[in-house]
Amino acid sequence: MQQLDLSSYQKVNGSFGKRLIYHAGIDCGFCVELNYMINAMLYCLAKGYRFQLYSDDANFGTSKGWTEYFEPFCEEVHEAFHHKYNLHRPPQWHRIISNTIKTRSLSFVFWKQKFMLKSLMGHWLAFRAYGEYVKLSQDVVSDPDMHYHIPALDFDGSYYEAYTMLAKMVWQPQPEVKQRITETICCLSLPCVYSGIQIRGGDKAQEARLITGRQIIEALHPADGDCIFALADNYAQLEIVRSEFPQLRIVSLCQPEDQGYSHQAFCIAAPQSKRAAIIRLIVSIDLLLHAKKFAGSITTGPSVFIMKQRYAEPSVIAVDCAKEMLESALTLPIDSRAAISADSMI
Predict the structure, then answer these.
(1) Do 3 and 32 touch, CB atoms closer than 8 A?
(2) Tens digit of each residue's pLDDT (9 = 90 or more) over 9-23
(3) C-alpha to C-alpha distance for 296 and 277, rounded to whole angstroms
(4) Which of 257, 219, 252 is nearest to 238 (CA)?
(5) Which of 25, 202, 236, 241 could pair with 260 as two cysteines, CB 3.0-4.6 Å apart?
(6) Which spans in the chain are helix H?
């Protein structure tokens, strides 16, 4: 896989005259927001827009945004209007109409119209602030079927190859977080060779069928004595899995007080509590990215982020999606992925 050094990216990105300002950390979980950001970076490289970042109000931070946890990789802006008017791109009209028919309610139509007005206001405020037309987050269109030819970076490859190249470039934790990763490896006595899993509980049940830890571990076909690092959000469920597989060493950063992740509760948590949770998540994802084997679900943000970079590896498994379907499934919206997941687990 081609590696992209930061200076090369910054040189190419800075050479573009037109620009797009991306708002990171709007309202989704950390890995979903990260996925959207990388897609926006790809869009900018393909279309010739200079990528800039607004993350002062990121829902995963405590007012410092991206650089609270990761090294900077692009220019950031700080105008406050981005908070309200720089938004995620909404569903297309055909999906809005479909949902309207299903629910027999016009609420989706009104929501879309309200978004369109806010988007117009955002573009006007951006023009007033910068003296030029600037694209915003809602202008990003992701095309997973696109082939990326970027001569300035000596890159020619698929969406997944381009995505992985950028993901590795931006995934550069700050020294404090790097230190936590090193300390965690030491504290957990994590061996050089280990497997990784994600077991998701909590509010994920509102949009997808939950998959048990047993189902995920069985997909790995582990040998007795294997060490498995688990990204989990429910300590009681983690203990059940440990009791079901006493022959395995299952380690995790999941805490006894964890009863299932709730994004709503996370967003209103105290800043330091939020910061501690995100650092734990980043450390866990970093360990999973380096696991020899990995098993997860196509419905969970961290698993999707990991599998987008490693889906072609035989040792990376989606327990709820056939290997031959994984490449196309990972880029689908959550409702479509949830449907695939539910069908495969019958």
Answers:
(1) no
(2) 999 999 999 999 999
(3) 20
(4) 252
(5) 202
(6) 6-14, 30-47, 82-85, 93-103, 107-130, 159-170, 175-187, 213-220, 235-244, 263-267, 271-289, 301-310, 323-329, 334-344
